[in-house]
Amino acid sequence: MNNSNAHFERPRTAASLILAAGKGSRMRGYDGNKTLLPLLPRARNPYEGSHPILVEVLENLPPGPKGIVVHHRAEDVRRETSSMDCTYIFQPVTDGTGGAVLAARPFLRNLEEKAIIITMGDVPLIRRQTYARLLKGLEAAHMSVLAFHPEDSAQYGKLDVQEKRVQRIVEWQYWRSMEGHMQQAPCNAGVYAVDRSALLEGLDALAQRPHDVRKQRDGRWVVIQEYFLTDLVEIFNAQGLTVTLTMAEPWEVMGVDTPKALAEVQKIYRLRQGNN
Q: How far apart are the first and last CA of the chain?
């Protein structure tokens, strides 16, 4: 497939795929699905309260079909979102973000929408207008990556951008030793808008690119195979497809993976609610 000279149209509707399979292993003292943590906590217990993170994500996404990839506490996710007309996709093995989207291929194939948004279930502050701008990026590309400039790039992947096109996403282990433009490059927020046909073809290639990852499981180190969704950028470029970027504010793309991050997101959400 090579659509580098394709005529693009503005997507009128979009389907969304929300990745919500994770446990949140760094959330000390919490064994639930981290996407169900509350944005409005009760006094003295940040893990209990109302308005789950995932519900806010779903409410901010553009109109259209929504699929949720589940694994840990899948029934809890179903129960909390049962009124929101979602499709649930079980990821048998937690084998990375790419593995989550690979598990969703039957859902993606059955859609009529040409545009897909892929987002994380623990990033609740992304505004509706930001998703709309990300989607608008498909007017001139096959994929648009949501990017941002944090105060501290920490362990984020960075976008290798040349002539306004994203060539690849470089993980922090590698860009830290690079010189030149990569030091000032925007970071990857892990949220994407993608042309559905291009995505399905790209996933066939992604399925052939597992990575060996060393992780600690049950107190011992093991090597497992994972699929990285970020590999799609290189796959698309190799196929002659166009990948661009859409910028977001750093506070919008904060993910909830630690108690400190949860407290910060809850604070920002409360302040923004007061300003609306």
A: 45
